[in-house]
Amino acid sequence: MARNQRITGLVIAILGVVWVASTYAQPPARTIEHVSGGLYKFTNKFHASVFLVTDEGIIATDPINAEAAAWLKGEFDKRFGKPVKYLIYSHHHADHVSGGDAFGAEEIVAHENIVDDIEKDKVPTPLPTTTFSDTKTITLGGQSVELIYLGSGHSDNLIAMKFPGEQALFIVDIVSAHRLPYRTMGAGRDNLDGILAQIRKAESITGYNKLITAHGAPYMFIAKPDMLGQLRGYIEALRDEVKAAMDAGKSLDEIRRTVKMEKYQHLFLYKQFLPLNIDGMYTHLGDKP
Ligand SMILES: [Zn+2]
């Protein structure tokens, strides 16, 4: 285990250096990667979604943006020759669900809280045709996807998508495989306790062995389910360290210099994102009375 972890850490470190040096400024082109069975991962620059191809059509998820979705629809037609029957939104953020009309989906499914936020933020994508409150299962061509509401934190309409036939779970934004949380961790917008509760709720989901995330370390997009607990552990430990330093009267500058989180240095973008994560945590904690 320790050896495997070291090797994994080394691989991530090498890939990280190569990737940051070569493509951080020039994101990789669009790709489609086969996961297993009818399940595929679609990547567009720094964003990803998944889709399931069945005998009776395709279940697509986040379109990402209009251009990406138009490209993906072309690939659906070329590679599979099947229509999109369902389109599922993970949550309302424009960088994940813009351009949904490109697929011509028969049904668009999302959490019920998404409607107000799509309208309020003027997200350029069609409203869902079907909404749900807690869980919903969609079945097509003998395969299914289970949609699970994660509660309020990073938006109040975020859902997890489980593909039981492929033993896979797709999670967006609250965790990113093998990578530190994004920049300031939604400080000023998201609720930190809510994010932690969303991750805990995702951790309660069982019956899969592949965690697929919408962002993450390049070429390492599939993680084991325990990645959720590892990244929650990181956020909690960072919260505790930053809080202790704030309670001790340290300035943000001092906190940046002293909080190292070395246990997590094998994670992708550790050097780039740790200072930003600290800034974000400082803001999150300062928001509280
Ligand atoms: Zn988001």
Automatic annotation (TrEMBL):
Any GO BP: antibiotic catabolic process
Gene3D superfamilies noted in UniProt: Ribonuclease Z/Hydroxyacylglutathione hydrolase-like
Domain of life, per lineage: Bacteria
One Pfam family in the UniProt entry: Lactamase_B
Domain Metallo-beta-lactamase: from-to ranges: 47-215
Family stated for the protein in its record: Belongs to the metallo-beta-lactamase superfamily. Class-B beta-lactamase family.
PANTHER family: ACYL-COENZYME A THIOESTERASE MBLAC2, METALLO-BETA-LACTAMASE DOMAIN-CONTAINING
Protein name: Metallo-beta-lactamase domain-containing protein
Organism: Entotheonella factor
